[in-house]
Design brief:
Elements lengths: L3 E4 L9 H16 L3 E6 L9 H14 L5 E4 L4 H13 L3 E4 L3 H13 L15 H9 L5 E4 L15 E6 L3 E6 L7 E3 L8 H10 L4 E5 L3 H13 L6 E5 L2 E2 L15 H6 L4 H10 L12 H7 L10 E2 L2 H13 L3 H10 L7 H8 L8 H10 L10 H11 L11 H13 L3 H13 L7 H15 L3
Parallel strand pairs: 1-2, 2-3, 9-10, 11-12
Antiparallel strand pairs: 4-5, 5-8, 6-7
Helix pairs in contact: 1-9, 1-10, 3-6, 6-7, 9-11, 12-13, 15-17
The structure holds glutamic acid.
Length: 457
């Protein structure tokens, strides 16, 4: 049996780091088990679903390194859901309800006032054909509810009905089907809510493992009942904890904050985003994992904790730095070329500057400092300027190597009596226009005798 998983986003917004946790959990699970990964757009809500978002999700997943084995759109599969509806109707498991939202709300309040659980009382089951015709004559259309199997003979006398599953992440789970309302599967206008298309597709597409956020745990109880009503064994479920912002709020697809697109545009490495999305809120320490193959190795669903995990974007900066500092020239080369950084200098340049990068593209800034005009003019006090002017006269003869900086500064120290920061900083500023940066021993060689002399203050 091929392990088959799916990531099922609704294309109603951009995916964020929390959705990425779901996507990656499925992807890594598939990779680890030689399985199949389906990207399935839950776009039954045709009003709110947009092709633009579906496209953006595909781009984001690709950037993260997720390559779906197949892509499905629920909006193209309505005929399949219609068959499932027919099957449930035939079995007497889908019944027509005519209540308006206001009527339902009134009933809910009444039940609460009577200290009854605010679940749907199945009043529509009592409707006669004549009642229904009357509603229809008034122009009312029914919505359709799934009759949960939580009673013996009389649907108005429910009894505790436990559904169990052994969750891949949370361990043994129990949901009581008598504690919930019969779920609405089809709306008045004939459109489908998420539940039925999801279960129908999971059956039809041979999904063996459903890995998703723990906001779906209760749904799972009802969905297991629907799987069975449609004649299928439910798949294995795994519900991971959700991510929140640092202040504990849920992440929203609509807010656009922390969207994968915005993190990409901010220049983060996909592996820093992936490492954090997968390792945060688990028993593993959050660390920069260099590539997807290594993340597959490290991935372990059972290590995911049960409580929500806070996502702190500052952690991304740390991971990003670490990844860049450890990126070999071979791995960086093509990307450097895209920044017009090539030739013999490219490798020593990369090795010298990678330890100072926050973002990969900062490399262009250092290339410019080393090879071109200084983007920022050196800012030196008159005294430091005079000192640096004299120091430049003591520069050793070419050819230069890594030792040159030491030879030069020792000479300068002897001649001027300056040492430490008061010696290095004016030289750094004169050479680079910056107060921070890579080792001067490396920079001096990269800048080379000719350009260095041109920078004498
Ligand atoms: N579209 C649903 C969601 O984004 C999918 C849930 C599921 O994986 O079944 O929450």
């Amino acid at each position: 049996m091929t392990i088959t998983v799916r990531f099922a986003p609704s294309p109603t917004g951009y995916i964020h780091i929390g959705n990425t946790r779901t996507a990656l959990s499925n992807w890594l699970y598939a990779q680890k088990n030689d399985g199949k990964f389906i990207l399935r757009y839950d776009d039954t809500d045709v009003e709110r679903s947009k092709e633009e978002y579906a496209h953006a999700i595909a781009v984001d997943l690709d950037w993260l390194g997720i390559k779906p084995d197949c892509v499905e759109y629920q909006s193209q599969r309505f005929h399949i859901y219609a068959k499932a509806v027919e099957r449930l109707k035939q079995a007497g498991l889908l019944y027509a309800c005519y209540e308006t939202a206001d009527e339902l709300e009134r009933r809910r309040k009444l039940r609460l006032a009577r200290r009854l659980p605010p679940i749907y009382g199945r009043e529509a089951l009592k409707l006669t054909d004549a009642d229904k015709s009357e509603f229809e004559a008034k122009g009312r259309k029914p919505h359709w509810r799934f009759l949960l199997p939580n009673f013996e003979n009389d649907p108005f006398v429910t009894s505790r009905t436990e559904v169990h599953w052994d969750d891949l992440i949370r361990g043994p789970q129990t949901v009581d089907l008598a504690s919930m309302s019969d779920p609405v599967l089809v709306r008045e206008d004939g459109t489908y809510l998420y539940t039925l298309p999801s279960v129908t597709d999971d059956i039809d597409m041979g999904v063996t493992h459903i890995i998703r956020g723990d906001d779906h745990v209760t749904n799972t109880g009802a969905q297991i009942a629907i799987f069975r009503a449609l004649g299928a064994e439910p798949p294995v479920f795994g519900h991971h904890n959700l991510l929140t912002t640092v202040s504990g709020e849920g992440l929203s697809k609509r807010s656009g904050a922390l969207s994968i697109g915005s993190l990409r545009e901010a220049g983060y490495e996909p592996m820093s985003v992936a490492s954090l999305a997968v390792l945060i809120g688990t028993s593993e320490a959050v660390a920069a994992v260099p590539n997807m193959a290594a993340l597959v190795e490290q991935f372990d669903l059972t290590g995911i904790s049960k409580s929500a995990a806070k996502f702190d974007p500052a952690e991304l900066d740390t991971l990003n730095r670490t990844l860049l500092h450890e990126l070999s020239f071979g791995e960086a080369q093509a990307r450097l070329e895209a920044l017009d950084i090539s030739g013999e200098q490219a490798e020593p340049f990369w090795l010298a500057i990678r330890g100072n990068l926050e973002r990969f593209n900062d490399a262009a800034h250092w290339w410019q400092i080393i090879n071109g005009e200084l983007p920022e003019a050196p800012l030196l006090s008159d005294e430091d300027k005079a000192f640096a002017h004299d120091a430049f006269k003591l520069l050793p003869d070419a050819p230069w190597n890594r030792q040159t900086w030491k030879d030069w500064t020792e000479r300068v120290k002897m001649e001027t009596g300056r040492k430490g920061k008061s010696l290095f900083m004016p030289l750094r500023i004169a050479l680079t226009g910056q107060t921070h940066g890579p080792e001067l021993a490396d920079l001096l060689v990269l800048i080379g005798p000719e350009r260095t002399k041109g920078r004498q203050p």
